[in-house]
Amino acid sequence: QSVLTQPPSASGTPGQRVILSCSGSSSNIGSNNVYWYQHLPGTAPKLLIYRNNQRPSGVPDRFSGSKSGTSGSLAISGLRSEDEADYYCAAWDDSLSGRVFGGGTKLTVL
Amino acid sequence: EVQLVESGGGLVQPGGSLRLSCAASGFTFSSYEMNWVRQVPGKGLEWLSYISSGGNTMYYADSVKGRFAISRDNAKNSLYLQMNSLRGEDTAIYYCAREKYYDNSGYDFWGQGTLVTVSS
């Protein structure tokens, strides 16, 4: 069972906006930054969002992140077929003295 | 071009040991903190261990504490993970990932991973 909680699946149609959620606690998201990664099986994971809402260069502005209290969210607008992947949130956990990941959300583009 | 290339994976018996390596190139390795992350087949990502840029500070996930040891050789631009007392549940793809910890910039580059299979 993951420390950060993500819904196991989500879906949307091309062009739609979807929001993926990540729920934590005061020891992780509540007091530290949230990160989001995109992972296609068999490939290296890719950083999408750092410091809650910052995009690395090269990440389209269709991807945006936010944080409120002990929860984070990743919004994907203008959904495309290539967005079909697994999405993971992550944060440092002060109680565990380590990084924790969510269980991941498998996004399907219908 | 930034590259992280893991090696050392393979088949090992339960109770056995394995040493993974991660060769870095295309950036100043000694300026980055490094991590090991794994993915059990069909499961999510699991952070395993962190090492500071100078190698003085290490953190471990509870699942591997006391069994795995992270280390680095900045002169060789290499990161290592010594894995002892391996169990079936350690079967996974193991990734190395870099970060600028104090910049809170996240794991901005990952290797392609190396597969470890623990089975008799």
Please describe what this structure looks like.
The complex is a heterodimer of chains A (110) and B (120). Helix content of chain A is 0%, strand content 45%. Chain A has 110 residues and is mainly beta. Chain A starts with 8 loop residues before the first strand and ends with a strand. The mean pLDDT of chain A is 97. In chain A, strands 1, 3, 4, 7, 8 and 9 form a 6-stranded mixed sheet that branches. Chain A is globular. Chain B is an all-beta fold. Helix content of chain B is 0%, strand content 52%. Chain B has no helices and 11 strands. Chain B has strands spanning 3-7, 10-12, 18-25, 33-39, 45-51, 58-60, 68-73, 78-83, 92-99, 107-110, 114-118. In chain B, the strands form 2 sheets. In chain B, strands 2, 4, 5, 6, 9, 10 and 11 form a 7-stranded mixed sheet that branches. Chain B has a 4-stranded antiparallel sheet with strand order 1-3-8-7, with no helix packed on it. The radius of gyration of chain B is 14 Å and the shape is globular. The A-B interface holds A 2, 33, 35, 37, 39, 43-47, 49-51, 56, 86, 88, 90, 96-104 and B 35, 37, 44-47, 50, 59-62, 95, 97, 104-113.
Following the backbone from N to C, one meets helices and strands of chain B in this order, namely: EEEEEEEEEEE
Strand-residue proportion of chain A: over 45%
Q: List low-confidence stretches of chain A.
A: none
Largest sheet of chain A: 6 strands, mixed
Give the beta-strand count of chain B.
11
Number of H- or I-type helical stretches of chain A: 0
H and E order of chain A = EEEEEEEEE
| Rg of chain A, Cα atoms, Å | 13 Å
Q: What helical percentage do the residues of chain B reach?
A: under 10%
Helix content of chain A: under 10%
Class per helix and strand makeup of chain B: mainly beta
| Most extensive interface | A-B, 26 and 23 residues
Binned strand content of chain B: over 45%
